[in-house]
Amino acid sequence: MSEYYRSKRTRGLFDPESAEPYRISRSGIDLFLQCPRCFYLDKRLGTARVPMMPFNLNSAVDELLKREFDINRATGTAHALMLTHGIDAVPFAHPQMDEWREARTAGARSLHEPTNILVTGGVDDIWINPRKKLHIVDYKATAKDTEVTLDAPWQIGYKRQVEVYQWLFRRLGFDVDEVAYFVYCNGRKNAPAFDFKLEFDVKVIQYTGDDAWVEPALTDIKKCLMSPELPEAADSCDWCAYRTAAAQHEV
């Protein structure tokens, strides 16, 4: 068996008899919206999808962007990208900023009392405008020949990501602007040589979020978790389609 995957785990499972809040991350919410069956197999039965290998290059871009914006955060000044794109804001300085970024160990979190679900998420950045409203900011990295956009159907996950963060920070008592920003870094592949460096074109994309779907989704998630029955797979779920196809050849 691969050292990277365990077919059955016992920690972090939902117990319908427990009165303790159940922690679900932003990515867990997105998993439910992708496929309730995959979600149930993971959170209730302990069999998760095979994990993807980590995108270490993307993580490096994230870390460097955070360091760069932190320079402006410390001085209360606008970053050059903000000025270039006409964004009237500065990086938000707050004592919990580092905590909010740590999705695995801390992150921003809020208990949704009707479902007893503790929603957590690690935000990349937050900017604040002169009206003292916060903008949720997410960093993305890719390498493609075409202009980066948010138009692909699969990028609904990106949009839901910032909308969960908007919901979280409103729950934490902050005045959150509906406008979020994606700092999108696109690696250039047309350079004449590598020269031991990778250069990026960086674009800031504005997105108007709507978090109205979050609470109904949490209600549906709790109903799913409480059910003793395995839910139906989503029609568009490649994971479930593969399991079904493979099972036809197994005895």
Give an overview of the whole structure.
- 34% of the residues lie in helices and 19% in strands.
- With 251 residues, it is of the alpha/beta class.
- α1 packs across α2.
- The longest helix is centred in the first third of the chain and has 20 residues, at 56-75.
CATH class categorisation: Alpha Beta
The global form is: globular
Average pLDDT rating: 93
Helix content: 25-40%
Low-confidence stretches: none
Given helix and strand content, the structural type is alpha/beta
The total strand number stands at: 8
Biggest beta-sheet profile: 5 strands, mixed
What CATH architecture label applies? Alpha-Beta Complex
* Count of all domains: 1
Give me the number of helical elements. 8
Distance between the termini: 20 Å
CATH topology: Lambda Exonuclease, Chain A
Strands in their spatial order, largest beta sheet? 2-5-6-7-8
Reading the helices and strands in chain order gives: EHHHHEHEEEEHEEHH
Based on CA atoms alone, the radius of gyration comes out at 20 Å
Question: Which percent band covers the strand fraction?
Answer: 15-25%
Short recap of the structure:
The protein is of the alpha/beta class and 251 residues long.
Characteristic terms for this protein:
Lambda Exonuclease, Chain A; five-stranded mixed sheet; alpha/beta; 251 residues; three-stranded mixed sheet
